[in-house]
Amino acid sequence: MQITIIPASPQTGKATIRALLNDPAQPSVRGIYRDLTRVPEDFRSNPRFEAVQGDAEDVVTLDVSGSDAVLAITPPKYDGSDVVQLGKTIAENIKAAVQKAGSVKRLVYLSSVGAQYDHGVGVVASNYEAEATLKDAAPEVVFVRCTYFMENWASAAETVKDAGFFFSTLTPLDFKLEMVSIQDVGNACTASLLNSLEQGQPSPHAFELFGPRPYTSLDVKEGFQQVIGKAVTVRPIVKPALREFYSGLFPPTLAQQFAEMNEAYLPGGLLDRDPDPTTGQALRGTTELHDVLRALYCSQA
Question: One Pfam family name from the record (predicted)?
């Protein structure tokens, strides 16, 4: 079985490739990279892996011929460009490459919770556009709608190591939110790529992906305290301050979109109310938050 990952360089792409190469099914894996210097050495040395140069933003560079299944990812971009249009463009390019190949039986798109909404969700609207484009790209289409990544606390690990505190935009601090590790994302995408839809499941099929349980900002604080063995302070960024906070991190339009997405997660927000929920049972990963926090902290120089 031949599986192609487009693009392969995001952390979620790496996790999926690693899970595929470790799977007993032993599929052949092709990763499409804009920059081939970003291919991990352990991938290069695996005889079942092939790195190919290509750019998800340039359709003429995409070749998925011979692939049985394709994983499509909308990569993050923080330069101020229109991320919603980018999500649509990349999806159109991947769809064109899939249909040109003629061999692809299954397309899996790494999406987000809230992708069923076209407004009020900030940057998640890019996933809405991508899903709308990819829904008929292959005979079987699967949307893996991931919740908040545990690895989003990477910047918190940095300030905890340097100064013993971290900022949290998830308030109130005891508010519970579903989170999932990138490792569990890779495992879920691998299962979706290798296995056909169950009998009776429609295409496209969407499911939400969570971690073992919901967590709070206080759980993050406790997790870091367990790692370093001393007290950690959490500095909450309350809802009215979100736009100013993100303006210090991103270009203006992107800052507004991140603030809107963040607000949607919080109590009373669109994703918290979820008036049009994803049907079916969510899949839960097994990686605990404290394990991810430990890895993030230890990865700091």
Answer: NAD_binding_10
